[in-house]
Amino acid sequence: MKIARTAEYLRRSGHAPDPRRGSLLLLTLLALSVTHNPAALAASSGTVELSSVSSTRATAVSGATPVLLPPSSMRVQPGTTSDQTIHATDSGGDPLTFLKGVGPDFMIVTTLDPGVGSATGLIHLEPPTAAQIGVIPASVIASDGVLSDEKSFTIVSSDNPPLLSPPLDMRVEGGRTADQALRAIDDDGDVLTFSLALGPWFASVTTTGPQSGNVHLTPALADSGTHAVAVAVSDGIAADVKTFEVSIPSRTTPVLSPVRDMVLQAGQSVSQFLSATDLDEEPLLFFKVEGPSYMNVATYRGAGITGYGTITVNPQRYDGPSPAGGTFTIPAAVGVTDGTRSDTASFALSITFPPDHAPVLEQPADMTV
User: What distance in Å separates the CA atoms of residue 41 and residue 47, rounded to the nearest whole number?
Assistant: First the structure.
């Protein structure tokens, strides 16, 4: 502020310095300001020292939270051991460390492979002979050093935990649905409950029977990719968890609407409209898969989510399979394709043909010429 007031005074008094000497005046004013400021003078005369303590730096992580696959309940008797391999993923590719959350003293959690986005650990149980186990709540943690995920499970001794049959990997296109039956056994005959332990929004799990369940998938086209799903079965105390993968392709197969059977007579020309949908809006082409020569299939609009086509059947009297005529059922099928994926539909043609009698020539009379 002193510098500003001095410059203003010189300007008002008509003693403003020559612009060529402005830099020299500015340096002089700065020097005077420092001289009349004891704190600044002390700071300028001091020496600069480096701290003897190294600064703390943040761990370099991607910012993606690790995802720990839920462990299954573990059964162990005093004086014995039990192990379970655990897995976790990190979409940012960070190495992970497995830690013990809560649990008994005889529970040890170690990291087997920190991985690069996919890690493996181990839960080791070694209770002493005199240990009282019963049912013990426990948990493990997967951490990238900053962010973490914790999952709970139970440690039991007297109860027989349920055993879930491993589900198969599933593949379903966006806009469609898929189901898979789940099976489990329990030696104690306990009532079992199936549930979704980990999975995307479009996955759900229900209990359908005493030892059966169902996983239901309803993905959208935007969910393309590979998703990890974990399903669990529990008897109320212990649980078993199994994981599998669900893949959603980026392109969809066109879906052909049902085709009606067609009834007609020889000499008629009958048509039927076709329609098909394709969520990724690829151009569609309708084609004949099976049918007589007098059946034709054409596309008249193949762009957009819904495409349209036609079937035209135009049999003639001479197309009958038998000279005796009659009504015949002829199998037929049509299809639709986006150039890569196709869908087909079968139907039947019911055509009535008249009898095809041979011509009868009247007996010519004898001629004399």
Answer: 12
DSSP 53: S
Which structure tokens are listed for 306? 């819904």
156 and 241 in contact (C-beta within 8 Å)? no
> Distance between CA 68 and CA 152 in Å, rounded?
10
> CB atoms < 10 A from the CB of 353, how many?
22
Tell me how far apart the alpha carbons of residues 298 and 328 are, in angstroms, rounded to a whole number: 24
Residue that the structure tokens 């007589």 belong to: 292
Picking from 65, 70, 197, 236, the residue whose alpha carbon sits closest to that of residue 138 is: 70
CA dist., res. 184 & res. 166, Å (int): 9
Intra-chain end-to-end CA distance of the chain, in Å: 147
Residues in contact with 162: Cβ distance below 8 Å, sequence separation at least 6, in sequence order: 184, 185, 186, 190, 192, 233, 234, 235, 238, 239, 240
| Locus of tokens 């162990």 | 76
Which of 293, 309, 178 is closest to 256 using CA atoms?
309
Q: For residues 112 and 122, what is the distance between their CA atoms, to the nearest angstrom?
A: 7
Beta bridge partners of residue 229, listed in sequence order:
244
Per-residue pLDDT tens digits of the chain, which is 369 residues long: 444 454 454 455 444 444 444 444 444 444 444 444 444 434 444 444 444 444 333 444 668 899 999 999 898 888 899 999 999 999 889 999 999 999 999 999 999 999 998 999 999 999 998 888 888 999 999 999 999 999 999 998 766 789 999 999 999 999 899 999 999 998 877 889 999 999 999 999 999 998 999 999 999 988 999 999 999 999 888 889 999 999 999 888 999 999 999 999 999 999 999 999 998 888 999 999 999 999 999 998 877 789 999 999 999 988 988 888 899 999 999 999 999 999 999 999 999 999 877 788 888 999 998
Buried residues in 182-220 as b, exposed as e (16+ CB within 10 A): bebebeeebebbbbbbbbeebbebebeeebebbbebebe
Residue in the structure block whose two tokens are 């440690």: 155
